[in-house]
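tool_log.txt
---
The assistant was asked to compare two proteins side by side. It first ran the structure predictor on the initial sequence, then on the second. Raw inputs and outputs are pasted verbatim so the downstream comparison step can read them without reformatting.
(1)
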Amino acid sequence: MLHRCLHERVQSALADTPVVVLLGARQTGKTTLARSLVEDDPPRRYLTFDDAGVLAAAAADAAGFLDGLDGAVTLDEVQQVPELFPALKAAVDRDRRPGRFLLTGSTNVMALPKISQALVGRMEIVQLWPFSQGELEGRCTGLVERLLAGKAPSPAPSMDLEEVLQRIVRGGYPEVTTRAAASRRSAWFESYSTTILQRDVRDLANIDRLATMPRLLSLLAARATGLLNYAELSRSSGIPQSTLKRYLALLEATFLVQVVPAWSTNLSKRLVRSPKLILNDTGLLCHLLGMGSSRLEEDRGFLGSILENFVLMEIKKQISWLPSPATLYHFRTQGGLEVDALLEDTAGRVVGIEVKSSTTVGGRDFRGLKFLAESLGERFLGGVVLYTGEALIPFGRNLHAVPLATLWQSKGG
């Protein structure tokens, strides 16, 4: 079993927080991670609401259900019992021992105001994504941690384009990473997306026109890493904007779709404020677009956006287990300067990452990063252009062109 880099963070949270909530899309490994924590701490009990009997007991009398649980407990798939959360609040207020409850959920129950208010100050939320590329190779360090520490990138082995494309179309869902045949991966993604759209979305809200959701998800896939434009999406899908926003919120709540907010700053340039749209996994993204590695290599227009999606999600995964928090943004001015990924730590220090599918880079590829470096001064920790070439090349103070694989192979030190 591959080690999950969030393991230590969840353990640390359980050591000082009454309720730890592990959230993520279905089939990303939440249950496996939760069970591994049960093994680490034998007194912890494990119950899942996928069990009809457990679900019925909690739904009938949530307070009584919790009162009957002695010691620490893991409750899996808690989104199925929203009435549990007020009872959890009362139970924690009576006994605030750390680590009492580890909850997992496949939909973002914290987006529901009553639930989030019930546990405010009593919980820590941890988000689990599909496997990162580092996790697939047995490592938890990466370029993000290094750059946020103010360190220059370290040399890492290069990777040919064919292997990069294979990693992109495979993605990181644990089940898919074990399937060698493209046809079998496609079959899994087809079943998976159908299940999410017909089960989890329906459970979240009674929506009309559920049949339009698969087409909407495909439309979103075709616009991955583009700016979110509700008016254009409404015209293309035939869905009114008000309904479209509701549908998109549901897709976000099931973790299939993510938005990367625009960075807000007091820099003098006028900035684009629209968020970027990405999917949670490039394997799923390529499936929705009908893109295999061969077609992706031929269609460089799609390769650029899909590679950017791949990098943005790898960054989100690495951020999730950092000891100190950081936030992912994108940066774009109305004059055309842009940086694909901008990371800001709690001290306001900034790292910039650009993504290029080409095997060569030039000074023009650093325009956005140089603008940030000049504008932010000491707040700017460094910037890199990730590309599919082989050499680590300095392009100025704290600016480097870096082979793509350095993103997950960069060592500390």
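(2)
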Amino acid sequence: MSPVGLRRALHVASAAVLLPALRSDTALRLALLWVAVFAALVEFARLASPRVERWLGAHLPVYRLRETRRASGALWLAFGYAAAGWLPLPAPVAGILAGALADPAASWVGARCGSGARKSWAGSGAAFLVTVATTAAVGAAPATALAAGLVGAALERWSGPIDDNLLVAPGVAATVALLA
């Protein structure tokens, strides 16, 4: 599997952090906290030690060139999930599903239909559709799902100084919580 494919697969697999929600919202919050702490420890070790960075790069070739000396998207994704987790259910579930699935969908569609741009309208459309679908799947009203889709697509398209992985899950979750 290519590094880009592996990165997308790990992004999708990150939705597994939702499994504790089957037990309780408290279990979900604790799991998200532990995931965020673990991600921070891995990032600290990777950025502080060239040896750890080489080992991770050899065994988990998903880091982008721009992540060589700064925090990776994985850390920001974990922090975004943890932030979303503090909202009432089902909002965090919608946000985390959007965070896990919209970005890889946008990447995949954008690579095929996006004219080579890093962020494309085709990719944003995919992020919108996936976010609408995942939000509707957790029981949100159609208007809420559409609003969450717009927020998710806009935040995924974000190319500002804050990583979009930090923004999508809590942004979608907050939209669902506010409109529910």
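---
observation on (2): The chain has one domain: 3-179. The mean pLDDT is 89.
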